[in-house]
Prior knowledge:
20% of the residues lie in helices and 29% in strands. The protein is built from five helices and 17 strands. Strand 2 (13-19) and strand 3 (24-41) form a beta hairpin. The protein is globular. The mean pLDDT is 95. GO terms for molecular function: aminopeptidase activity.
Amino acid sequence: MKTISIKDIEGIRIGNAQNFTSGTGCTVILSETGMCAGLDVRGGGPASRESELLKPLAAAQSIHAVLLGGGSAFGLDAAGGVMQFLEEKGIGFDVGVTKVPLVCQSDIFDLTVADAHVRPNKEMGYEACKGAYADNYQDGNFGVGTGATVGKFRGMDYCMKSGIGSYAVQIGELKVGAIVAVNALGDIYDHHSGRIVAGMLNEERSAFADTAKLLYSSYEVHDNKFVGNTTIGAIITNARFDKSQLSKIAGMAHNGYARSIRPVHTSADGDSIYALSVGNIAADCDMVGTLAADVMSEAILSAVKNAESAYGYLAYKDLKFI
């Protein structure tokens, strides 16, 4: 097994677009020839578009793009720009009079980071596609990771800056990678050491407060729990799978979330994972699903370690007690 770049997986293009001043952005994963896709949603509060396309009973057997965006439900407008870009390039499902691109989208909540009234829109979605063709993808405070934060159980005053991360490996001809925007209610753990690397800070910002420990301090019902969260990502592989198999792989990849985020899959998160097949390599579904969880944990760690302090929120790189 060797580590490769997420961009070394053939058949996809990945691009970022962002507004650094307003603290939001989006990241697009494009396939000109179409890609089979599955989806598994575990969080209780997703913001999403065209998720029904990915159910096994839906007629469409492939899609042309997945967009990961900020702006919560407002940001779902950005998919229109992706559709415009792909239609202009003649990419989509042929309906005779034009080609209709099939675009799925999931969004994080980043409205409380900088400017709540600026969100990804049609123009930003279009720019992300241009970025994909310019090969501009990078980890950190870019694209959907621009406004990502973690450790928000007590609100924004004690959270940390996160971002978008990726990780990919190759075994023989098989390639499996993950890309993820880490915007969790909970803390982020290094799955190798079991130690917290980002999350809720204490009053003095001199140590981690440990969200799970605080959560266990009381079982009082919280009727208005802070819901500005959601970790969204995708597994990308050159192995050949159908929608049912990809949905299973996406579900297994959530084990990577569970190893690296605590608490995870809460009612205040919209945790979602897509699984995308962009090749024809024959591979075992369970093997790829197991590997998907591993690369997802690595991508989560990459998102935290490549983030930069911004908007008044500390990032991993600037912590003095790590």
